[in-house]
């Protein structure tokens, strides 16, 4: 009996070793130059040239190859890109014939690449809110040229990214749609570039609270002698620098015309989320990131870095189908009208009224 068990154990060990050798042989045969360009973009969402740029940025940040048969850094990056893009479980990614590997290996690759993409200097390079008047004026001019609304430096909103039930502080992540999520705040410009992102709050946190704690709010409030606006929905409190819709505005009135323009411009952030999640489908609310909240937040930031790289390079990603759009809308948590202090609200109303009057004069 003992001899039989030893033989079975030896056979299982040999089977595992053979699987490992087969995976290694297939990985060694991988030559990305042989992958057609369209197929490369379809699998990894980046062009070959942009992939090479990404490798230059983050290969030095990856752990060195520990042994002769270790995974090559470029294959680690391809594995992570494939996971971000497909939004499927690690096992299916690991079985992909582009570079087959065990699920544990995929998990390690994903963790290493995600950590590299979250390096502070990588985030600063690719996700950057305008820091000086010239940079802000460039964004303002693009919004004005496209929509006719002056002084806008960005659109803001939050979107929920589903995660598995966390083992700690579960109540912080359980949202009003009754699933666990990260409530991700994003600010974008008119080109759908993400200029600021915060993926550190659970799904139970209201949009207005995330904004109140955001460093960009303090930055905008500290600007002197410059008119700047962010555009948000009614989930945000009206402020001098935060323009929200006018409640119960009459159609074709000055307030109604402002609302029409404000909503039209605010579609920019909706399109940004659509492009981001269409390209990196691991973020779709219909899926779940099977990671702790901290790791899930890092994956979101990594996808935002890659999103901006693709936008700047002019690479189009796959669009969400109407069914996927509907599923995404169904899973998103509706905003709650933000409470507001009287003094700050009055200042916001004065700023909005001035904007409405200026729009009317320029009709």
Automatic annotation (TrEMBL):
Q: Which UniProt keywords apply?
A: Hydrolase, Metal-binding, Nuclease, Nucleus
- Example GO molecular function term? nuclease activity
- Cellular compartments annotated: Nucleus
All copies of domain DDE Tnp4, residue ranges: 156-308
- This protein's source sits in the domain of life called Eukaryota
Q: Which InterPro entries does the annotation name?
A: HARBI1-like, HARBI1_dom
As cofactor, the record names: a divalent metal cation
Q: What is this protein called?
A: DDE Tnp4 domain-containing protein
Q: Which organism is this protein's natural source? A: Parnassius mnemosyne
Q: What is the lineage of its organism?
A: Eukaryota, Metazoa, Ecdysozoa, Arthropoda, Hexapoda
């Amino acid at each position: 009996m003992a001899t039989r068990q030893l033989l079975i154990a030896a056979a299982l060990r040999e089977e595992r070793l053979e699987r490992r050798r087969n995976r290694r042989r297939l990985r060694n045969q991988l030559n990305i130059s042989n992958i057609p360009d369209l197929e490369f973009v379809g699998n990894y969402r980046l062009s070959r040239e942009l992939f090479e740029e990404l490798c230059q940025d983050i290969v030095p940040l990856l752990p060195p190859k520990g042994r002769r048969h270790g995974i090559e850094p470029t294959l680690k990056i391809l594995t992570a890109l494939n996971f971000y893009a497909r939004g499927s479980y690690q096992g299916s990614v690991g079985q992909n014939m582009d570079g087959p590997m065990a699920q544990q290996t995929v998990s390690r690759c994903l963790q290493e690449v995600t950590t590299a993409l979250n390096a502070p200097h990588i985030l600063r390079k690719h996700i950057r809110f305008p820091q000086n008047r010239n940079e802000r004026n460039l964004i303002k001019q693009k919004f004005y040229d496209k929509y006719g609304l002056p002084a806008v430096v960005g659109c803001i909103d939050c979107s929920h990214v589903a995660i598995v039930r966390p083992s700690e502080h579960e109540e912080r992540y359980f949202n009003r749609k009754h699933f666990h999520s990260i409530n991700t705040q994003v600010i974008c410009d008119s080109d759908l570039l993400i200029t600021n992102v915060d993926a550190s709050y659970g799904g139970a946190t209201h949009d207005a609270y995330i904004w109140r704690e955001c460093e960009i709010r303090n930055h905008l409030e500290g600007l002197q002698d410059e008119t700047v606006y962010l555009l948000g929905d009614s989930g945000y409190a009206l402020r001098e620098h935060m323009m929200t819709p006018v409640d119960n505005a009459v159609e074709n009135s000055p307030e109604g015309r402002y609302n029409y323009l404000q909503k039209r411009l605010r579609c920019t952030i909706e399109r940004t989320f659509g492009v981001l999640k269409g390209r990196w489908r691991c973020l779709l609310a219909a899926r779940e990131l099977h990671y702790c909240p901290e790791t899930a937040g890092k994956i979101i930031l990594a996808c935002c870095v890659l999103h901006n790289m693709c936008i700047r390079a002019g690479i189009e990603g796959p669009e969400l189908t109407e069914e996927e759009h509907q599923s995404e809308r169904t899973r998103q948590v509706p905003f709650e009208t933000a409470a507001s202090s009287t003094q700050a609200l009055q200042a916001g109303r004065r700023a909005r009224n001035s904007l409405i009057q200026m729009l009317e004069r320029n009709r």
